[in-house]
Each structure stands twice: as structure tokens, then as C-alpha cells.
């Protein structure tokens, strides 16, 4: 196998690719401990993708003993090289205090770095932080801006959060028709679970206060909704929220 020969010869990208093969069980038997070993070899050479992947393994406890502090260290190394997924995860690490002291300002900063690269999850979380004023000066208009950017990438949770903004009139005028549209989009696109059930419940609550004409208008808006812009992050991934 070429990847193995190159990896054993010290080629960092080959080490990362071999780790990924063991991680996914592609071309070799799935072996998370072996995946972690090869990720570490690449990570030690400064490979950002391997550093992020190794951080993930320590965060979850796959192939290695779970260790939030070590996970945070590897996320930071990758994040400082511009890996948007690592920046996103580091944002959550600082928000939740996983292996580091909780720090909302640091959380917002790492979310911003990932969001500026087009990471939809980071855009959603940064929007929520502007809504609540955690780590940043509260600014509902800025919250809506970032939530819309996430929604434009079809990030389903952002649909739900925009519905809430239009219900409350946060950063936008109160508009039950717009709120219905966003909850409808959330209900149609979220995976089955508590979030989707809540989107349906919120939509039905709004419907009870709308006329049939207004409901039809909101439904048409949802059917015809299209993203206004496309932002692509080549390594956008991470926990939803």
C-alpha cells in the first residue's frame, strides 16, 4: 500500500491519510487505536488536519483515553494554522470549559475566526452569542446577520433560531409570517428529534394567530426560499448546535 510505505517513510500527509483509513475502515480493518497512532505522527509534524482529527479522538475517547485538556491542545494547534473545524471546536471548548477554563470572549473569538471562513456552525453560534451578549456586546442585528449567513448554507438550526428572532423582534421587526416561514424550513430540514418537534410546535402556535391567507403566504415563502449567498469552508464540520 503506497500510503503505508510513504507514511512509514515520514510523509505527513500519507500518515494522516493512513490514519483516516483506519479511522473509517476504508481499505483496512477499522482500528481507532491505529488511526490515533498515525494521526499523532502526522500531527507531530504540524499537519493541521491530523491535529484536528487527533483532538477529536481525545475529545470523544476513540482510540485513546478521553482527555479534554489534550483535545483542547490539539484543537488549538490546528486552529492556529487556520483549520476552521478546529476553530469551531475550540469555540465550543472555551464556551463549555472543556479542558480549559470557560471563557466566553475566547469562545466568541474562535467562533468568529471559523465564521469568517464560512463555517456555518460557527456562524450560528456566533449569532447566538450576539443575541445573548456572551463574550461580545449584545447586538441583535449582528446576531441576525450571522444567523442568516448560516441559514444561507442550509444550516438547519439557524432556520429555527431565525424563527425565534422574528417572534421576539430581535434585530428584525416582529413578523409572525417570517417566523412561520423559518420554523417551517426548520421542521422540513431538521433530523427527527426534539429540535424538529419544537419547530413544528412553534409553527403551529403561530398558525393559530394567522389568517388562512397569511398562512398560505408563509408557506409559499418557505417553498420559494433560496439562499442569498454561498459560503464554502473546505473543512467545515463539527458538533451541531
Main traits of this protein?
single chain; 241 residues; mainly alpha; Serine Threonine Protein Phosphatase 5, Tetratricopeptide repeat; elongated
Short account of what is shown:
The protein is mainly alpha-helical.
Written account of the structure:
The chain folds into 2 domains: 1-117, Alpha Horseshoe (Serine Threonine Protein Phosphatase 5, Tetratricopeptide repeat); 120-231, Alpha Horseshoe (Serine Threonine Protein Phosphatase 5, Tetratricopeptide repeat), CATH 1.25.40.10. 68% of the residues lie in helices and 0% in strands. It contains 13 helices and no strands. Helix 9 (140-151) runs antiparallel to helix 10, helix 10 (156-168) runs antiparallel to helix 11 (176-189) and helix 11 packs antiparallel against helix 12. With 241 residues, the protein is an all-alpha fold. The protein has helices spanning 2-8, 12-24, 32-44, 48-60, 68-79, 84-96, 104-116, 120-132, 140-151, 156-168, 176-189, 194-207, 212-224. The two termini are 39 Å apart. The radius of gyration is 21 Å and the shape is elongated.
